[in-house]
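Exercise 3.2. Students should predict the tertiary structure of the chain below and write it as C-alpha cells, then compare their answer with the key that follows.

Predict this chain's 3D structure.
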Amino acid sequence: MIDLRTIREWGEATRDAELRRGPTILESIRRAEFICTRLNLQQVHEIAAELQSREDRADVLQALRLLLESVGDSPDDDRFRQLCGAYDLAVRIPWEDEVGEGADLRMNLALIAWRHCRRFKTYREAHEWEARCVMEALSQEHVCDFIALSGRARSDALSRRYFSDGAVLVALCRKLQDERNNDFSWVATEASLAFEAMERLELPAIAEERAFFMASAAFSAACSFKYLGSFRVAKKWLTLARKSLETVVGSRPYRALVDFAELALLQEFHDHRAIVERVDDVRQELVVCGLDWHVACADLLRGECFKADGRLSEALVAYREVAECPASAGDHLLRGLALLNAAGVSARLDAKVDLNAFRMAQEVLEKQPAKWPLAQLQASVGEFLRDSGRIGAAIEAYRSSVRLYEDLDMKSKAAYVRLLLAEALIAAGRVLDAGAEITQVLRVAEEHGVAADIFAAVTLLQQALERVSTSNENAHTRRLQLLRNLLRAEK
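Answer key:
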C-alpha cells in the first residue's frame, strides 16, 4: 500500500514535467511471463543483472507480482519457487523512488509467500516470510503511523483503508504478539479493538484470511488478559480464537497454540490434574508442528506439575533441561524462568542452598524487557528466606513482589503473594498486618474470580490469626507448616 499523500506530493512536483511513455501492460506481462520461465532455469543473480539495465524493470516486476498473486491460494511448489525467485529478484535490483513503490512490491511478494506457507507449508516457513513481510511493511512510514495509532483513534474510513491490506494486518498482529508478554495492558485493549473492527467491517475481504487475523488478535487478547488476572475473559478470547480457526486453511499449528494456552490458563486455576491429563499430548502436537519455543514452555509446565505433585527431583530435571535447550539459548525470558524455578526447587530439596542460584536467574531476567518475572523472582526469594528462618527478610521480599505485581496491574498474582506475606507476618507475630493483607486478598479474589482454592488458604490463615494468641509454640508451628504446604500448591 503506497502512501496517497506522498503520491499527491509527487504529482504536484511533476505536474509540468514531460513524462516518458512506458511499455503497455500487455508488454510488461509478456516480459514477466518470460522471466517466470527463466526463474526455473537460471540463477536469480543472472536475471537481476540483465533486468537491472532495463528502463522498464519496475513495470516488469509489478507485472511479475500480478502473475504470481495466485500462488498464495495454490499448493503448487513450482510456482512457489518462482515466487521466492521473484522476491529475491526485487531485493537484488536497486529501486530508488519517492513513493515507496519498491518496498510496497517486496511487501506484497512476501505477503503472497507468507499466505502460501501458512496454508500449505510449515509454521517455521510461514514465520520466516511473515518476518520479511513485516520488515517491508514497517519500512513505510505511513504503515508505522497507522499501527502506532490507538484503536480508539482510528476512524472507520481509516480502518477500511488499512485493514483491506493483509500485509498491514500481518504487521499489526506481529506487534501484538511481540508485546503481549511485556506491555499486556496495551495489548489487551488493542487486540480486542482490532478483533472487533475486523469483524464489524468484514475486512480483509478474503474471509479465510480475515478469520486467521481475528484468531491471532483473539489469541493475543487471551494471553494479555491472563497476565492481568482476568481469567474468565482470557478463556472467552481463547474460545473465540478456536472458533475463528475453524475456517482457516493449515490451522493445525495455531490450534496447537490454543491448546497450550488453555493448559497455561488451567495452571492459573491450579487444576494440575487436568494439566497432567493433557500436557503430553499437547506437547507432542507442538513438536510435530515445529513450535520449539512452545515445546520448551510445555516442559516448564510439566515441571510445575511435578512440583505440585511433590516430585521435586523430576521437576528439577525438567527445569534444567529447559534452561539448557536450544530454544532458551537466545531467549532470556525462557531461560531465566527455567533457572528461577530450578533455584526454587533446589532450595526445597537442600536447605543448605544459598541465594546464588536466584542471583543467576535475576541476571538473565534483567536482560529482557518484561518486569513480571522479577516479581515472581522476589516471591521465590521470599519463600527461600522464610524456609531458612529469615522471616524479616522474607517479608521484605514478598512486599517487593506485591509492589511489582500491582504496578503492572497483575492483581491476582499480587493476591497470591499477599497470602505468602500474611503467613510470614503471622510467623513474625504481626497479626494486625497479616489481617490487613488477608482483607486485600479476599477483595481481589471476589473481583477477579481467581481459583476457588484461594479461599481455603484464606480460611486457614484466618483461623491461625484467631488462635495465635492462645496457641503454644509447637502447635502454632504445625499450623504454619500446613499453611506453607497449601500456599506452595497455590503458587
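Discussion points: The mean pLDDT is 88. Residues 4-10+23-148 form one domain.
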